[in-house]
Write a structure and sequence with these properties.
Length: 336
């Protein structure tokens, strides 16, 4: 059993495979309690604050519901709702909030910001997403794969799209840690940073996994157990990025042809939100401007029988609950 009490949760590079395994198993235990409507307010009397410089649906709702299920008070501070980084430094904000709250979640921009919060807060800090890493999504994704495929080690996992973004980086590290065979399938200019790839390959050697980078779509999709993608332009990037990204990534859209190259029982995953139709403001704008009605994934795949995106979205709540419980729990007996 791992003991993560008092730890920050900033990136999976900070955690051993055994500690990640513990979080997955703890997520299963807490999910079971939720499904059985069994009260689990183990952290009653504690309070947490959610600092969001980037808006979100799944991350905010997951932290709020998970916090309340655990019996905690939850404060949400959205973009512009605090003085952090404007009238007050990140370090000063951390020292103030650390005196009032038992835990702090941050969702925003550069990884250095959440690292600074962790340095000065004096309480556990959880990364709800930065430009470089998205670790809470990783535990949810690993749990989903294990639920659907029965295992993690040896799974062939392919990520299509901009592999330099927080999801490409994080999925590569998560797969390397847990012994999956990770492939980033993208144009070479959208491969992850060389230093991070080198580190991931070293980790994969220890776990029995592997890391592959390829521009070849057939090589990327063939015999995969999981096909994964993400939106082509991340929050905070300029609107001008769409034209170049669409030109580069249209061939890498996850469609029925790519799913047919994968194993017959392969699953499709996406961290959401997704532009698979024109039923969003951005989706319609892109269709009007560039003449495409689907972006990173075709609607047939997104809505198809191999898609597990909504199971994956639900698992954000259970796994975030596990991260908070693991880092905030007291001396009582652990759940796994």
């Amino acid at each position: 059993m791992a003991d993560l009490r008092g730890r920050h949760f900033l990136k999976l590079l900070d955690f051993t495979p055994e500690e990640i395994r513990y979080l997955i198993d703890l997520s299963k235990a807490l999910k079971d309690k939720k499904k059985r409507h069994e009260e689990h307010a183990y952290l009653k009397g504690k309070n947490i604050v959610l600092l969001f410089e980037k808006t979100s649906t799944r991350t905010r709702c997951s932290f709020e519901v998970a916090g309340m299920d655990l019996g905690m008070g939850v404060t949400y501070l959205g973009p512009g709702s605090s003085q952090m980084g404007r009238k007050e430094s990140i370090a000063d904000t951390a020292r103030v909030l650390g005196r009032m709250y038992d835990g702090i979640e941050y969702r925003g921009f550069d990884q250095s910001l959440v690292e600074t919060l962790a340095e000065y807060a004096g309480v556990p800090v959880w990364n709800g997403l930065t430009d470089q890493f998205h670790p809470t999504q990783m535990i949810a994704d690993l749990l989903t794969i294990e639920e659907k495929k029965g295992k993690l080690k040896g799974i062939r996992f392919t990520y299509f799209g901009d592999a330099r973004n927080n999801m490409g980086n994080s999925l590569m590290i998560a797969c390397a840690k847990m012994g999956l065979h990770f492939t980033a399938c993208a144009p070479a200019e959208l491969f992850p940073a060389e230093e991070l790839v080198r580190k991931a390959k070293e980790i994969a050697k220890e776990s029995g996994g592997s890391v592959t980078l390829t521009e070849d779509i057939t090589e990327g999709a063939k015999d995969a157990d999981v096909l994964y993608t993400d939106i082509w332009v991340s929050m905070g990037e300029p609107a001008e990025a769409w034209e170049k990204r669409i030109s580069l990534l249209q061939p890498y859209r996850v469609d029925e042809k790519k799913m047919a190259l994968a194993k017959p029982d392969a699953i499709f995953m996406h961290c959401l939100p997704s532009f698979h139709d024109t039923n969003t403001v951005i989706g319609k704008e892109i269709a009007d401007r560039y003449g495409i009605e689907e972006m990173e994934v075709s609607n047939d795949v997104f809505e198809g029988p191999q898609s597990v995106v909504f199971d994956e979205a639900e698992n954000r709540m259970h796994t975030i609950k596990a991260v908070m419980y693991a880092t905030l729990r007291g001396e009582e007996k652990d759940l796994v």
